[in-house]
Design goal:
Elements lengths: L1 H21 L17 E6 L4 E8 L2 E9 L2 E2 L16 E10 L10 E5 L4 H5 L8 E3 L11 E3 L3 E2 L2 H8 L8 E5 L2 H5 L4 H16 L3 H6 L12 H14 L2 E12 L5 E12 L5 E16 L2 E10 L1
Parallel strand pairs: 1-10, 4-8, 7-9
Antiparallel strand pairs: 1-2, 2-3, 5-6, 5-10, 6-7, 11-12, 12-13, 13-14
Length: about 300
C-alpha cells in the first residue's frame, strides 16, 4: 500500500511538472479571445519582448493573452535583407507553413508576416520571410534577441495564435513600445482626420481634400498635382458626390497609422440623374506631419 501511495505521489508531481512546463513561456492564464479576424490583433512589443493577443475595441486594444518573445539579434527597425532586425509596422498574416516543410529551427509551425508592406516598399526596404515561429531549441526562448529578424515563441503558443487568426485579415502590429503607443492620445485625432477627409470629398471642397494628402503622394501613376486636377475634373463632372465609410478600423503605430474601411461612393450628374456608384475596401496609411495628419498611401483592395 505504501508503495502504491508513493508511486501515486511521484505520478502527481510529474503531471504537475508537465503542466507547469507547458505554461513556462505563457505569462497570462486568461481565457482565450472569443473574437477573430478583424476583431483580433496580434501585437509584438519590442521593448517588453512580449507578444500580445488583443481584442479590437473601437480603436483601443484590450490585451487578453501575453507570451514571452525572442526577437532579432540586431536592435532597431528592419531596413534591408540580412540586417538581423525585426521589422516595425502594421502587417497581416499571409500563410502558414508546417513541418516537415519548415527548417527544423522554426519548430513545427510558422506564420508568415506581410513584410515588406506597401509603406516599407515606398521606403525601399528589403528582406523577406519574416515569421512568427516556434523552435527546436527551447533554450533560445531564454534569450531576448536570438533570431534573424523573426518573432520566436514557444511552439504551443505559436499554435495558440495560429488557431485564432484569420489569414490576410488579422493585423500584426510590431511596435517599439506598446504602452507608449496606446497612451499616445492619437486615436481621437485620427478619427477626426478621417471624418474631415470624407466631408471634404463629399462637399467637393477640393482645397481641403487635397490638403489631406502628403506632398509625395502618388495614385495610379499620378503625382499630387495630377491627382488634384483629376479630382477637380470629377467635381465639375458630377452635380453631387457622397462618400461614406462603414466598418472603419483604426490601428496606431509609431511610424504611421492605418485606417481600414469599406468605402461607399455615390454621385449624380448635374441634372440629378444617378452617375457612378461603387463600393470598395480601402486602406489609408496616414502620418503626422508638423502636427497634422497627411495621407501617405491609399490602397484599394481587390
Amino acid at each position: 500500500m505504501r508503495k502504491i501511495k508513493a508511486l501515486a505521489l511521484v505520478f502527481g508531481i510529474l503531471i504537475t511538472g508537465i503542466f507547469l512546463g507547458n505554461l513556462s513561456f505563457s505569462e497570462d492564464a486568461k481565457e482565450p479571445p472569443t473574437t477573430a479576424g478583424d476583431d483580433l490583433v496580434v501585437i509584438v512589443d519590442k521593448k517588453a519582448n512580449k507578444t500580445y493577443l488583443a481584442n479590437y475595441n473601437d480603436g483601443n486594444l484590450d490585451i487578453v493573452n501575453t507570451f514571452r518573445t525572442t526577437l532579432g539579434q540586431a536592435i532597431g527597425d528592419k531596413l534591408m535583407e540580412g540586417d538581423l532586425k525585426t521589422p516595425e509596422g502594421i502587417y497581416e498574416f499571409l500563410f502558414r507553413a508546417t513541418a516537415p516543410g519548415l527548417k527544423a529551427m522554426f519548430g513545427p509551425l510558422a506564420i508568415y508576416v506581410s513584410y515588406p508592406n506597401a509603406v516599407d516598399k515606398l521606403g525601399k526596404k528589403t528582406g523577406f520571410d519574416i515569421l512568427i515561429h516556434g523552435t527546436d531549441d527551447p533554450a533560445r526562448l531564454e534569450k531576448l534577441f536570438d533570431s534573424k529578424g523573426c518573432v520566436v515563441l514557444d511552439n504551443e503558443n505559436v499554435k495558440f495564435i495560429s488557431d485564432r487568426i484569420k489569414l490576410k485579415s488579422t493585423k500584426v502590429i510590431i511596435t517599439q513600445d506598446f504602452d507608449a503607443l496606446r497612451n499616445s492620445g492619437r486615436l481621437g485625432k485620427a478619427k477626426a482626420f478621417f471624418q474631415s477627409w470624407l466631408d471634404a470629398w463629399s462637399s467637393k471642397n477640393l482645397d481641403a481634400y487635397i490638403d489631406s494628402y502628403a506632398d509625395e503622394f502618388k495614385s495610379d501613376g499620378m503625382n499630387r498635382l495630377a491627382f488634384s486636377k483629376y479630382k477637380d475634373a470629377l467635381n465639375k463632372k458630377y452635380g453631387s458626390i457622397k462618400v461614406t465609410a462603414s466598418d472603419a478600423h483604426f490601428y496606431l503605430h509609431e511610424k504611421y497609422d492605418l485606417i481600414t474601411f469599406t468605402q461607399n461612393y455615390e454621385s449624380t450628374f448635374p441634372n440629378g440623374q444617378p452617375a457612378y456608384r461603387g463600393t470598395s475596401k480601402k486602406n489609408l496609411y496616414i502620418q503626422e506631419r508638423n502636427g497634422q495628419y497627411k495621407i501617405i498611401l491609399e490602397e484599394t483592395l481587390k
